[in-house]
Amino acid sequence: MAGVEAMPTNEQAQAEFAEALDDLCFAILRATGRGVPGGDTELTLSQYNILQALGDGPATVTEVAAAADVAVPTATRALRGLASRGFAERRRDQSNDGRLVTVSLTVTGARVLNEKRTWVRARQRAIFNSLSDAQRESAASLLRVIAADIHEL
User: What is the pTM (predicted TM-score) of this model?
Assistant: First the structure.
């Protein structure tokens, strides 16, 4: 019949999905290396995620790593760099034996995090607003499913 589009086969649909997922993964990798715009301070996406993990208050390095979904050595290196820039500070817990170290945002770190969050939220709104009503209805649930499974790639 003329004018009627054939439905893609399951194999075609899987191939199109795989290509779109590759595009998403490459876009995320490019964004990770480029950094998070907004404000005067340069931050990588990893540094931003570490600052975000500290946004709710002091935490141990292990807690920061878990919240940022990175390995503890990665969090340690990032925190050391953020501390050297004056964005985070480490404190030993003096109430026990002094081995427990907590990390918190400095006033400067909180300001930088707020600048970046403001920019990120504005970009998220812009992306959401660019979607059709139908896309908006399914976008959040699809992104959550993909995020949960992406570790397997």
Answer: 0.75
